[in-house]
Every structure is written in C-alpha cells, then in structure tokens.
Amino acid sequence: MIAEDSRRFEGIDADFKELANAVHQTPNVVEATNKVGLFGKLEDIQSRLSLCEKALSEYLDTKRLAFPRFDFISSADLLDILSNGTNPQQVEKHLSKLFDNMAKMQFDADEEERPAQSAVGMFSREEEYVPFSQPCECTGQVEVWLNRVLDSMRSTVRHELSEAVTSSEDRPREQWLFDCPAQVALTCTQIWWTSDVGMAFSRLEEGYDNAMKEFHRKQVSQLNTLISILIGHLTLGDRQMVMTICTIDVHARDVVAKMIAHKVENSQAFVWLSQLRHRWDEKDKHCFSNIFDAQFLYSYEYLGNTPRLVITPLTDRCYITLTQSLHLTMSGAPAGPAGTGKTETTKDLGRALGIMVYVFNCSEQMDYKVKSIQDAIRDKKQRFTVMREEVSLCPSVGIFITMNPGYAGRTELPENLKALFRRRNTALS
User: Which DSSP symbol is given to 400?
Assistant: First the structure.
C-alpha cells in the first residue's frame, strides 16, 4: 500500500514538472494559462494529490495509534521522524516534543568509536545526565523503539527513586541529595516529609506533647543547612536543585507550623489530609501520592532539573479541586483572569505526580465526546473507541481547561461540556 502511494505521488510529481516546463517555455502569461487541456490536467493532478494526502493521513494515524505521543506533534515533524526512524541520532532532535524533559540520549559506541543504536542514558534540557537502569535498543520501527525508550525512562526514574529512598536513611540529606537526579531528590524529600509528620503524629498519640514542635525545629534546621549550601560554590544544576527543594521545604515548614498553631494532634485532620502527600510503598516498590481519599500512582515521567512554583493557600485549593476531579473521573476547569497561574498550576500538579502535561489550544473538536474517555476510565477498560478509532486507555489521563473568558474570540463552554469539568476560581479574593 505504501509503495503504491509512493508511485502515485511520483507520477503526480512528474506530471506537475511537465506542466511547469511547458509554462516556463511560454513567457506570455495569457498564452501560458490558456493552453488547451491545462485546466483539466490541473484538476486531475489536484484530485490525485487529494488521494495521496488522504492515504498519507491514514498512514500517519496508524503510527499515532502505535505511539500516542505522536498525536501532539505536527505531521511534518512526524514525517521527519518516520523517514529517519532507523537513525536514532537523527530522531533525537524531536525527543523534547515527545517527552517532558528528555532532550537527547547517550549511545554506546561501536568498535570504530561511532554511536551505536543502544541508548545507555538520557540528558535533560538543563544538561542533567541520568543513566538508564538497563540499555535500550533503538532498532526496528521507530514507534516501537520509542515505546521502549518510554519504558526505559520510567523504569529508570522508578529505580533511582527506590535507590534514593533506601540510601537516604543512612546519610544526612545534604549529602545524599547530590548523588541522585534532581527530580528524585525532590520526590524523596517529599516522601520523608510525609513519613516524618506521620511519626510525629504517632508520638503525639503516645503522649509526647512536643513531638510536632521538635519536628518543626528539625525542619528549620534543615532549611538553614540548605540556605548555607546555596551561599557556597555550586554548579548551576546543583543550585537549581537546592533552590527547588527550598521552595517545597518552605511550604512543608509552614504546614507543620499551621498544625502546631491549630493544636492539630490527629493525622485525620483537614489541615493534613488536604496536603499532597507522597509515600513509598516498600512492598510494591512504587511511589504514591495521596490527598484526602484520592490516591495516585506516580507516573515516573522524567522531569529533569526544573524549578517549581511557590505553593500558596490558593495553590493548595486548586490542587484539592483538580485531584478530586481526577479521583471522581471528572475533569477540571480553573477559571480566572489572565496571568493568575491557571495553566502553570495545572502543569505543576502534573510535575508533582510525575505526569507528562501537554498544553494546546482548545478547538471546536473538543466537545462532549471527551466523556467517552471518562466513561472508559470509570469502567476500567483497557481499550475503548473514541473518534471512530479503538485505542489503548491510559487510566491516569486527565483533561483540564484553563479559561479566562471575556476576551475577543473566547467564549464560555457550552453547558453540556461545562458539566464535565469541576470549576476552580483562581481570582484572588
């Protein structure tokens, strides 16, 4: 089928070149455009070209079904990827469009010191390098080996997180955090915060009235240690990592201070349950994120060494609304004036859960049929039909619309679509 379409396109190309040469030999534009049969030939070429475009579109759709992340890149980029599929080094330039923060890969060298087709690690846009837990063979069809790269990325982040959780028990935090990727150091810090607060609650129940205050003093000491590290000489990557951990630590300190001020002594209190709490399950070797009665499996998307937003009370309320909407198999619609952080808050929640977040403009095609995705998740299906195509279902998917209506060209959502999204007003009161 592909060979047939290729021959058809070559025939169109030859006919068009023939017409172009004939026009070139007739300098007079009136004579050139009024030749007998010219209009019919152009119509025939247009008709055959439409058939080729349709066949090409159907071919690209089969590739998008095989590797769904192709849906979020242009057809031109996809064609470039497919044409260079047997040369991973040529596909590298498109990795940043397919993954959250994988800019390139490190390849093994062959006997002649040339890059082979076995990837052994990945680089972020910030030039952070993380070796794969197992080499990844980039051979065969491009959509197949990109799926292998995706699996290698996730298994590597999971492996690094498992190693960091174990090693962090033996050394002070300011030492081990420089031995692991920035994303892992930050996530592990959040895991131990959840664990330490849980231990403080347990001690409170045993009668140690100052348990939470002692932990708060420990937090202040850890934060001061990080600040002293920032004053010293650090590489750009290490400085960014420490600053990001400081940002999250400040929020963690404020949460504990608030619980002390409100004399919270029970781990079931609203102040604590409303926080996004990470924990490591030693049995399953998985990281989970909890908030109220919702639990999410960490998705292990490699995020690199990127900064995180300052967490404010409004951020906390947005997190509660958006996570509960996911838990109830709904979607979210943060609303408010431009510049209030709707999109960035949604992206930051994705980073907290280790999920890839795609941002794109909403078109007329985004209609009530998004409900088929929610219904499939609710029914725990592995495959379902959407837009007349049967596709595999990723149960962690969520759809969020960030709107600031009132501007030219922007309108309110229709009522039948609005009912599928939980609103969260981001305007400050």
Answer: B
Alpha-carbon span 133 to 152, nearest angstrom: 7
DSSP for residue 71: G
Q: What is the CATH code for 329-425?
A: 3.40.50.300
Task: Write down the domain spans for the chain.
Answer: 2-66, 92-166, 173-287, 329-425
**Stated length of the chain:** 429
Q: What is the pLDDT of residues 372-382, one digit of tens each?
A: 888 888 888 88
Residue bearing tokens 């915060």: 193
Rounded CA separation 354/339 (Å): 24
SS3 assignment, position 316? helix
92-166 maps to which CATH number?
3.20.180.20
Among 355, 356, 301, CA closest to 155? 301
247-289 pLDDT, tens digit per residue, is 999 999 999 999 999 999 899 999 999 999 999 999 999 999 9
* Neighbouring C-alpha atoms within 13 Å toward the C-beta of 87: 8
Question: What is the rounded CA–CA span in Å between residue 97 and residue 81?
Answer: 11
Q: Is 339 buried (19+), middle (13-18) or exposed (0-12) by CB count in 10 A?
A: exposed
CA 62/CA 85 separation, integer angstroms = 15
Beta carbons of 273 and 257 less than 8 angstroms apart? no
Q: From 3.30.70.20, 3.30.70.980, 1.20.58.1120, 3.30.200.20, which CATH number describes the 173-287 domain?
A: 1.20.58.1120
